[in-house]
Amino acid sequence: MATGLYPQTKVLSKNFDVPNAHTLAVARPRGAYQSLEKALRTLTPAQVTEEVKKSRLRGRGGAGFPTGMKWSFVAKNTGKPTYLVMNADESEPGAFKDRYLMERDPHLVLEGALVSAYAIEASTVYIYVRGEYPHSIRRLEGAIEEARKAGLVGKDILGTKFSCEVYVHPGAGAYICGEETGLLESLEGKRGHPRIKPPFPAVEGAFRCPTIINNVETLAHVPWIVAHGGEAFAKQGLPPDPANPRSNGSTGTKLMGVSGQVRTPGLWEFEPGITLRELVYGYGGGPLPGRKIKAVIPGGISMPVLLDGELDVKMGFDELVKVGSGLGTGTAIVMDDTCDMVEACVNIAHFFGHESCGQCTPCREGCHWMEKVFRRVAEGDGQASDLDLLEALFKGIEGRTICFLADAAVWPVRSIVRKFRGEFLAKMTPAPTPAGA
Amino acid sequence: MPKLTIDGRVLEFAPGQTIIQVAQANGIEIPHYCYHPGLSVAGNCRICMVEVEKNPKPQIACYVPATDGMVVHTKSAQATEARAGVMEMLLVNHPLDCPICDQAGECKLQDYAFDFGHPTTRTPVEKTHLPKNVPFGAKIVYDGERCIKCTRCVRFTDEITQTHELSMGARGDKELVIMTSKGEFTTPYAMNIIDLCPVGALTSKDFRFESRVWFMDFTESVCTGCARGCNVTVGARGGRVLRMTPRENQAVNRWWMCDAGRLGYGYANAPTRLTGPRVRTSARPGEFADVGWEDAIDAAVEALRTTARGGVLADASATLEELWMLKAVAGAQRGELRYASRVGHDADGFLIVDEKGANQRGAEALGFARATAAAPAALLFVERGDAVPKALRDGADPVVAFVTDGADVPPTAQVVFPLPSFAERDGLLANVDGIVQPLRRCRAAGPRDLRAPLEILEEIRLGLAPDASPWTHADVVTAVRGAVAPAGLEVPDVAFAPAPARSVAAPTARTR
């Protein structure tokens, strides 16, 4: 990389380029399971949770909910077991960060799960892995086997009284099973239909027991937090907005990726603070020769697009919301000037219509309706009134359903329709002239 | 009691009640498809969205609990717009084949589209096509395109029968209901999903294309298929019973009924039904002449006056009043009071009970005893041949017989009166738990101009004892009330429609 670029901070990715780092023999001398040992021998579960709270770690699955706060919601003294579920159903188009973690450093992922299970006093961890990630599944299962032989998984871990079983559960190919309650239904052997909330999983989750569901990357941060303390983590990245007492900033580090029409797509790790422009032009290498960047979706397909002129925003949770988009998974998708934005909408709407679980009327019917209208416009059969119809559909779909898939289906295409209205109008059939005119 | 406000009305509620429950309890209608009080809340149809102040998004009334001080608007701009949006979405891929849909006229899609649908279509796009005319077992047909995916039917087989024959399949706008079992239901309650279906996606093979519902006459009655006495609505037209559907009664059948009961009305439509009185004309068994009602009554009085035979053998589906009158008429004679009923072996701890006599408890309470062997009886009352087997009814060698179907007439009976079926009589039945419920006459069912057995028995009674004072139906009910009280049966006050001068047939302006 050229000098002058925003610096990388390799915490989660420190072993990504180390040969055989997926084996315990390589990972352990490089520090794996030291945080587990520290937590089990020197910290109470409440102390681990407290450090995570202090770290201001926010969920890396897309929603950015404070992890420590989530953990504190676990229903206590229910007489039921508590479960930790790792959401490894990385199905968001454009996202591939969790796959890197699972394939290249599965012991870090596993250690994060074990320490977190200890914190919430769970003795069972389910790792729900996207079915299309067979290599991730193999690597995780291999790591669990190695860890079990080393006394790091199973009964009386490291000779302490903490016992924890870890199970890998492959998904069956549904995007909706990345939604946490859809995931739970699938884990229980049912159709992946998201549940109505409340109750939230922390009160009634897997098998009706208190359950915490965290993203892979989220849990992979926990060992570092235990090793260095929550305050050290909170000092990295973007601090909370002092003007907003509810803000949590974007602390620690974040895996960020670029895919699409750029010269050097890839995955890197930064303290939040890098701008989307530096990410796309610096690390992503900018547009292909002779092309111009037209639009960027900053965090997986579910987020609204930003134009080339809007890329100077910092890659942080709150910063991207302020410009009408979101950090999401932190994996940007780049579209250049050869990209037909109407076709992009057909593609996006088709994806969400196909992945809608079918449960709620507005999502089941609305997503496909959007797709049909986009397709009509793409094929040159659209009319100007279709843009009004689309706006009505966005309104009728967003915020009207059990889960957020419907919202995610609306956000990118609505932003495209609004920002690229001219492209849509250019494809419209001219209104027929009245007879005799 | 905590209070909330719905559409400006301040309403008390019990903690735990949802918005829709409070609204329904207070007569405020909130549209709903997937919500059903007998099933878990699915929250998927979204038509019950209402505006709840301090919430930016519309909320589903079926799931959100009422809270103290909550302010709900069901008719505000936000609520109306949200509902209209859902309504439009529901019709995007709906085939709109109402003209040939059995549900038309009692379809919630039609009702709510009428209330707040879009007047014009904004969907000049090809509709999504799904499987149609899919058999769900032998009795039910599924139409994936009419289906609104509310999952009521799936939840019924999961939660009520726990037989899990149904599931949702596929995803998105291809989602549909599928059978998980090998093509047949194991539950005897499967047809309840037809009533649960708020649209025309699940139809009854038995009722399909039989009649537009608006040409039918509906009567609230009870099922006489067994001693449970499930509350039903009987639908009839042109002298035929066309449909029975369950009616909510939390004390008896909740919202459900069994398939056998639902389909058990067929004998009421049998072509072999008796339509007028008959009198034996010769010593040869089985030879009868059709006579007028008054002649038959005179013949019955004369025959009973001269016979030495006494006693009654009655179908246990006879009403309390009928049993009382049989007893009163036979009282002049000596003899045993006996009843007969079918006893099955299919009780399931839910609704179906082994005892099939719809008024067996009532018969016992009035001093009738179960007939165990053939024995002579002066009066015979047979509504269903399978309740009073041939050996018993022929062995009764009755003087006067009330029989529904010509095939069940004992060849040696002297006077035979046609008996109206369960769908054509008014009266009271005591169910297996001793709950006394009204059976009601459907105006549009049965052959024309049949006379009620109560009336005939009263005329015979007066014929036998000319000095006796006449009884009205109400007098009989009062007498029955006192007679069954010691057995623990409580007879409610029930108003029956006055008996018609002649039976009224269904609308005949249009023929099917």
Task: Tell me what you see in this structure.
The complex is a heterodimer of chains A (437) and B (512). Chain A has 437 residues and is of the alpha/beta class. Chain A folds into 3 domains: 24-235, Rossmann fold (3-Layer(aba) Sandwich), CATH 3.40.50.11540; 253-336, Roll (Ubiquitin-like (UB roll)); 341-426, NADH-ubiquinone oxidoreductase 51kDa subunit, iron-sulphur binding domain (de novo design (two linked rop proteins), Up-down Bundle). Helix content of chain A is 40%, strand content 12%. In chain A, strands 8-7-11-9-10 form a 5-stranded mixed sheet, with helices on both faces. In chain A, a hairpin with an 8-residue loop joins strand 9 and strand 10. Chain A is globular, with a radius of gyration of 23 Å. The termini of chain A are far apart. The mean pLDDT of chain A is 95. Chain B is of the alpha/beta class. Chain B folds into 3 domains: 3-92, Ubiquitin-like (UB roll) (Roll); 124-269, Alpha-Beta Plaits, CATH 3.30.70.20; 278-487, 3-Layer(aba) Sandwich (Rossmann fold). Chain B contains 12 helices and 23 strands. Chain B has helices at 19-25, 77-92, 108-116, 152-160, 192-196, 259-262, 293-306, 320-330, 360-365, 390-396, 453-464, 473-484; strands at residues 3-6, 9-12, 49-52, 59-60, 71-73, 134-136, 140-142, 166-169, 176-179, 202-204, 217-222, 231-237, 240-246, 278-280, 288-290, 312-315, 337-340, 369-370, 379-382, 400-403, 415-418, 427-430, 436-439. Chain B has an 8-stranded mixed sheet with strand order 15-14-21-20-19-16-17-18, with helices on both faces. In chain B, strand 6 (134-136) and strand 7 form a beta hairpin. In chain B, helix 2 crosses helix 3. The longest helix of chain B is centred in the N-terminal third of the chain and has 16 residues, at 77-92. The interface between A and B is medium-sized, with 32 and 37 residues.
